[in-house]
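So, can you check this one?
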Amino acid sequence: MQKHKAMLTPLILPLILKILHGMLKQITKLGLILMMGVSMSACSSTASWKEDVLLHDGRKIVISVLNNLGGYPAIESRERSTIDETVTFTLPDVNREIVWKMGFRDDVPELNSLNLIRLDVVKGVPYVATYPAGCIAYNKWGRPNPPQVLFKYEGEQWKRITLAEFPAELINAHANVIVGRPKASLLKSFYTVEGVDAENHDISTPEYKTILREAVKNGDAITSCPDFNSQQYRSFNPPLPMKPLPEK
């Protein structure tokens, strides 16, 4: 019997190795799939909620907000970055759906990255007030001061308008939508008017929560952003004179 076993071993061993090799390939493939799945889950997500929006005339509308989220902008970040935001609402009296969509990528040349401050309807026409989210966006939009970008819904699209074209009854009005995005850990499915006000309560910078009539002077927020179109940033020369290094 011992001799019989010795003759079978050379035949069985290659078969066992082949089976183990096949199992190892399957385990490796499964591991890669799981890693990809975790990576995709970590880098792509959504946040959605609804808000009661109080209009200037006392009426209320409900908006639906959907944020597509990217990864964490820094190791210490607790909130994901926003890729784009879509706000949908029904125009009062006419039962017509209107959509506001805004991307938030600084690495593209297109005009984007605006945070909503106020959404309102005057004489049946929707209006939106926003501010640029960051210095790159502020420069993209031409460095407005007051630092807000205003829109009117006209001809099935949102059209940028001047402060003079914006309804007078909305000037100096405060934010009636959640500015930015609620913290992921505290996100609710629905926010009442009081809930919206509570989310905006800690915003202390006027241009981030109020539609201003006058330009901001000596501000320390968005208007203090450097002008990227100035010669200082477009020149190949250093922005400040550089002293020569001392000789050794």
